[in-house]
Amino acid sequence: MKRTDSATLKSWIELNQLVKEKKNLEILLHDKVTGLPTIPLLFNDIEKILKKHNQIGLLCIDIVKYSKIEEIYGYKAFDEVIKMVAETLKSLLGETLREADIVSQLMISGNTFTVLLSPPRKKTELTKEDLTKIKKRVSLKITETIRNSLDYALFKKFGCYVGCAILNYNKNIRLERQLYTTLEEALKDSATTQQKDIKRRMTKLKKIIENEEIYSLFQPIVKLPEYKIIGYEALSRGPGGEFERPDKLFTIACASELVIELERLCRKKALSAASNINPKHLLFLNVEPDSVNDPELRQIAASHLLMDSSLNSNHIVLEVTERAAIENFSVFKNALEYFRALGFKIAIDDGGAGYATLESMVELKPDFIKIDMSLIRNIDTDSVKQQLVKALINFGKETNIKMIAEGIETKAELKTLLELDIHLGQGYVFAYPSEPFPKIRKQKLTQST
Question: How many CB atoms lie within 10 A of CB 59?
């Protein structure tokens, strides 16, 4: 996360003097996305609390953009996340927080919130132990609320870290300077918490990679309406707990700069587990954008890892994930052409989930596009989603790109997709991910659709 530098923070706090002189600045110093006031507007409140209690507690809540939410999904999606956090914090007033506490944003259009905590709590004065308990509860509440409110594709890229500090009033020191010092302390505490979390997870991930504690499951990709399996996606799993799901593994890998190492292991395990795949079936292998230049992946293209299996380059679909945004489409496209020339096929994951994926569709001209599960979920009752998916299906027909509806969970969703003339599907409705190679529940599906 990019921290606010000290000079900028100090200058921002100094704006409180201008607010006193020019009242019309108050409107400009409210954040337009959340409607919350920013720190320069709170000096009167801070002075009142300090005159009464001689101290004030401060929380800084940093919203971490793990995997470039704005770059992948656009600023509107990130604004919605920021709005959700603001509403969550306001809802905590009178519960986890006191009614007298004040929720604000550090700066306009930023990703850091502040909460002013006025004493007394249960004691005559605030202590660091009090604030530590409060910040843990606030962090938990925000994460729980966002998890329940946000689409899963976005939530897996979300994170927040809460820092705290106490301003003990000193009449001999300028208030702006005291607040600046306290904010710096709270921001440093937030960053320290984040670094400790990253370090713990990085240590665990390194052990997972060293011990090769990754295994592969497979989920069928089905031709419709024939209900015929055309291939399988290899899905990597970790040893359990927070490290079981691939999105979590790669989130930690991105923060730890271990993406290449993790992906190499996932690829190795997937190719090994898929060595006896039916020669008529395709194998969809997930690859990060940065990995197309990985020498090991190019060695796979030279087939030295495929010689002892029934796989060859014509059987493999490189499924490009967008956990990280594609920085340069021209360079990336040239790298993919190397694999195309050797017979590999290309798929784009999360189609329609954001403007970056739309650009991928146009620039990369893949063989397959997987329509993001956020568009598939409850499509049977959502006419807007139906129109969006229909447009993607028609786009596929016009451009000779095969569309795959991923994440189909219910028979009602499947029925609607069949009516929209989708030709390929994937999801729990057919089979859960399992050891090689699960069959589909064809009979029960054909009886109900």
Answer: 25
The amino acid sitting at 346 is: I
Please tell me if the domain spanning 6-202 has the same topology as the one spanning 212-448: no
Q: CB under 8 Å to 192, separation ≥6 — which residues?
A: 163
Q: What is the pLDDT of residues 89-122, one digit of tens each?
A: 999 998 889 888 999 999 887 889 999 998 766 6
| CA angle, 4 then 10 then 13, to 5° | 105
Contacts (Cβ under 8 Å, ≥6 apart) of 225 = 418, 449
Name the CATH code of domain 6-202 (choices 3.20.20.140, 3.90.190.20, 3.30.70.270, 3.20.20.70): 3.30.70.270
At 221, the pLDDT band (50, 70, 90 cuts) reads very high
What residue type is 187 in one-letter code? Answer: L
CB neighbour list of residue 380: distance below 8 Å, 6 or more residues apart: 410, 412, 413, 415, 416
Residue 89: CB atoms within 10 Å = 26
Task: Please say if the pLDDT value at position 247 is more than 70.
Answer: yes
Predicted model pTM: 0.68
- Residues 276, 226, 427, 297, Cα dihedral to 10°: 40
For the chain, counts of helices (H) and of strands (E): 18, 12
Mean of pLDDT values over 400-425? 95
Among 108, 87, 94, 90, CA closest to 8:
108
Report the sign of the C-alpha dihedral through residues 303, 305, 308, 313, in that order.
Answer: negative
Identify the CATH assignment for 212-448 out of 3.20.20.450, 1.20.120.450, 2.40.30.170, 3.30.390.80: 3.20.20.450
Give me 8's structure tokens.
Answer: 């900028």
CB 231 within 8 A of CB 317: yes
320: Cβ contacts below 8 Å, ≥ 6 apart: 287, 288, 289, 292, 346, 347, 348, 349, 360, 364, 366
Residue 417 contacts residue 446 (beta carbons within 8 Å): no
The rounded distance, in Å, linking the Cα atoms of 430 and 410 is 9
- Supply the pLDDT for residue 127: 85
